[in-house]
Specification:
heterodimer, A: 291 residues, mainly alpha, MetI-like fold, 2 domains, 12 helices, B: 279 residues, flat
């Protein structure tokens, strides 16, 4: 709890920076308008104008907040939560491809990690390539993968999920390999003393020991998965989604719309990471591993 | 059919060789040969599947076709590489990492700010910052400046968080020793805390190498001059010239791995004393 005050200070400073930036970036347009109208703007009038422009270069937080409310809460009140103009609808699309990719990525990651831990040849030959695969800017080729998969009659949702899967499997592999190897010599010797088979050692010692590592990498993985989904939506924008909102906003110069999509994506990321954190706390507590 | 059989035989043979190699005592040759053999097998598998099943080159071109395109378009690829990597990614990387480092050192004297900055920084590092790309293109125009700005935004927080954490890495005993020596704050910073922070800083720098390249390429999807890797990828996808796209991907992969390798090499030189570098 002692961190609350410092965090609030930093957040407030960020908001102050945001407002300051909005004034700085929007003032030229305000002066332009005033000059054409033939009026002289005082400083106060200029600041007031920068807060309420239609297409500001940087929308101030309250404008973004109003847009967010207009496209979520207000639509719920009118009973149109899933209309095409609501961010809930677009957020839902992004969420579904994120979760699909995340689930498959996690599964693939765990399987690879089990193989790597139990097979020396696999460890030596596959592991370097898994690491190398992450130095390739995969996000950059997302549009190609999406287009190719879509032209091969693959469902759009799966095409987007593949990108998320690629981004989320890596942290899981690395974390799980570390976790499955985390039991120390004493514990492994104990297993041998009990004449445990490889399978028994795996289920009763290695797997439970890897749980904390797994959750740590799941948090990284789901954030990466969301980024993958957003970028994939840039190429499949006809389906909607938060990435599509950003793209459409950038076509028409609707900065407020871009920023509200951005904030919505950030909120989604925070919610997902927080729910995995909750799952982690509950699971580790039941396993008796909570610190 | 012949292709498929050949590739399968090669796969099994390579797998056996790798098992034999890993059963031996590890040495320099093994450490290189085993993953190399696996990589070659993957490429052959790809080539064999494409040829054997007659997959249309519009969907997935074989590696040989990509290599031919690559060698035929070297000047064009170099121009794209220079525009995206050197102008966009590298300049943004240097500015972003430099700024993050300076902020971390500046914040270092105030535990209050540190406690606030770490959770916020960790949170922001998990956000899809790449979404700022359209906004940056609007602010800084189509040329490399907007790409560098996206890269700065992407690399800033991971490096900041790692540096702040690293500066806390020296333990109390060591800091007490510095006090016993009557070391001033800058002295303690230069001689103890910065060297102790290096493994953390390099961790951030390594994460940032990949982010930088991704940021520069994706930002080009939102508007760019008629060169650059992201521009080429998005236009050639539209023309279904996938061999050219894969050639760009090969450039990106080589550039990304080389960049990462360079930073890792630098790390080895600077943090030679760290347990993870010995052994």
């Amino acid at each position: 709890m002692r961190n609350v005050l410092p965090i609030l200070t930093v957040v407030l400073a960020l908001f102050a920076l945001w407002y300051g930036g909005a004034v700085m970036l929007n003032k030229n347009w305000a002066y332009d308008k005033a000059q054409r109208a033939g009026v002289e703007l005082s400083f106060g009038e200029m600041v007031k104008d920068t807060m309420t422009q239609e297409k500001p270069r940087l929308p101030p937080p309250h404008q973004v907040g109003a847009e967010l409310w207009k496209t979520t809460g207000a639509m719920v009140q009118r009973g149109r939560a899933f209309s095409k103009r609501s961010l809930i609808y677009h957020g839902w699309i992004t969420l579904s491809s994120t979760v699909l990719g995340f689930v498959f990525g996690t599964g693939l990651g765990i399987l690879l990690a089990i193989g790597i831990v139990h097979n020396r040849a696999m460890d030596k030959s596959v592991m370097p390539w898994i690491i190398a695969s992450q130095t390739i800017p995969i996000l950059a080729i997302a549009p190609m993968i999406v287009v190719v998969l879509a032209s091969a009659q693959v469902d759009d949702l799966i095409a987007k999920g593949v990108i998320s899967m690629y981004l989320s499997f890596f942290p899981v592999v690395v974390g799980m390999v570390k976790g499955l190897r985390s039991p120390d010599h004493m514990q492994m010797d104990q297993m041998r003393t009990w004449n445990a088979s490889r399978g028994q050692t795996f289920w009763k010692l290695r797997l439970p020991a890897s749980a904390p590592y797994l959750f740590a990498s799941l948090k990284v993985g789901i954030a990466a998965s969301l980024i993958g989904a957003v970028v994939a939506e840039l190429s499949l924008s006809q389906d909607g989604g938060l990435g599509a909102r950003m793209l459409v906003g950038s076509y028409y110069g609707q900065t407020v719309q871009i920023w509200s999509a951005l904030i919505a994506a950030a909120t989604l990321a925070a919610l997902m990471v927080a729910s995995i954190g909750l799952l982690q706390r509950v699971t580790l507590k039941r396993m008796g591993m909570a610190q | 059919m012949i292709w498929i059989v050949f590739v399968l035989v090669f796969w099994i043979a390579a797998w056996r060789v790798n098992i034999i190699l890993t059963a031996q005592k590890p040495n320099r040759f093994n450490a290189f040969a085993v993953p190399a053999l696996f990589g070659i097998t993957l490429l052959l598998l790809w080539e064999g599947i494409v040829r054997g099943f007659g997959i249309s080159p519009v969907l997935l071109p074989p590696p040989s076709a990509i290599a031919v395109t690559f060698s035929q378009n070297l000047p064009l690829l170099w121009e794209d590489f220079f525009q995206t990597f050197v102008k966009g990614a590298l300049s943004g990387y240097i500015i972003g990492c430099g700024a993050a480092f300076l902020v971390a050192v500046a914040v270092d004297r105030s535990p209050f700010l540190q406690r606030g900055l770490l959770p916020v920084g960790n949170f922001v590092a998990a956000l899809p910052i790449i979404g700022l790309a359209p906004i940056m293109v609007m602010w800084f125009g189509f040329d490399w400046q907007s790409k560098a700005a996206v890269v700065v935004a992407m690399v800033f927080f991971p490096v900041l968080v790692n540096t702040v954490q690293g500066l806390q890495a020296s333990d109390a005993m060591q800091r007490d020793l510095m006090r016993t020596y009557a070391a001033s704050y800058p002295q303690a910073l230069m001689k103890l805390r910065l060297p102790a922070a290096m493994p953390f800083i390099f961790n951030g720098l390594k994460i940032a190498t990949t982010l930088a390249l991704i940021g520069a390429i994706v930002a080009e999807f939102f508007g760019s001059p008629i060169k650059g890797m992201g521009f080429r990828i998005s236009t050639e996808v539209g023309r279904l010239a996938l061999d050219m796209v894969w050639a760009e991907i090969a450039v990106a992969a080589i550039a990304g791995s080389a960049f990462y390798g360079l930073v890792a090499l630098l790390e080895k030189g600077v943090t030679f004393w760290h347990p993870s570098q010995r052994g």
